[in-house]
Amino acid sequence: MDGEIKQLRIAFLVTFLVLVIQLAGWYYSNSLALLGDTGHVFSDMLSLGVSMAAVWLALRAPSSRYTFGLHRAEVFSAFFNGVLLVLMALLIAYEALLRIGTGYSINSLPMLVTSLIGLAGNVYVAYALQHEENLNIRSAFLHAAGDALSSAGVILAAVLIFFTGQYLIDIAVSLLIAGIILFSAYTVLRNSLSILLESAPHGADIEKIASAVRSIKGVRGVHDIHVWRTCSELCFAMMHVETNNISLLEASRLSKRIEEKLKRDFGICHATIQIEPYGASCESRGACKVSKH
């Protein structure tokens, strides 16, 4: 976690410098595409700031009130970043459509120079964050990667405008940037909402888990399986396992074997297993249905 905070801090500082430079470039160039890219950089900076706060909160130990700790702050942060990206994309698209037919002038030289600096900064940030699996840091990586593509588009637009003088190129690139931002937003919102709705991670299908547990020697049946995530890195499960009439020691050993298989095959870090006698389980009484509670 300390390494993640350090990476985020460096990325935040680099992004802030890029923001200042691109704001100056937009002022002197009057380019909407560069303004859109600058707005994306600003959302990057907010994303990184919120990500640092979320990672710091995740370091706090669980308490009697927050028994899972504050790991879910990561997910709320990622969701906030996704919403911010959507708003940014809609604003850029709106401004681009308003400029059609106005014939505004663009100074392509500062547009080109500042977008080159922006591309270098965003590539550095994306490279630094690319290997992290934390959802919050992944969302920050997607911000930076999308912004690097935006900067490349602005560079291309600046070159074309320099040789042709066509302002419509600036509008077209602005709309392209808005599309890139929306795609990034979709990925972040889909993953964060999946966790907030307590869905099972990909590959941890209930039927697959039930089949894997039944394959363990001593298991006669399994039911009432629930799998959920509190954040991108922590997956939990609970289930009722039916077995023959065995001792507490044997039940403990069976639970251990099940936990090891769940962790090895499905990445489930913590499992709560209720051992029940075969043929006299709570399922036979219909007590396992959520609606009963």
In short:
This protein is mainly alpha-helical. The chain has two domains: 2-196, Up-down Bundle (Alpha-lytic protease prodomain-like); 206-292, Cation efflux protein, cytoplasmic domain (Alpha-Beta Plaits, 2-Layer Sandwich). The chain has helices at residues 2-29, 32-58, 73-99, 108-129, 135-164, 168-196, 206-214, 248-266, and strands at 219-229, 235-243, 270-277.
Report the β-strand fraction as a percent range: 5-15%
Q: From the coordinates shown, what is the CATH architecture of the largest domain? A: Up-down Bundle
Report the structural category: mainly alpha
Largest sheet: 3 strands, mixed
- What is the domain tally? 2
| Form type | elongated
Number of DSSP strands? 3
User: Span from first to last CA?
Assistant: 39 Å
Spatially, the strands of the biggest sheet line up as: 1-2-3
Q: Kindly state the mean pLDDT as a whole number?
A: 81
Report the uncertain regions: none
Question: Any idea what the radius of gyration is?
Answer: 25 Å
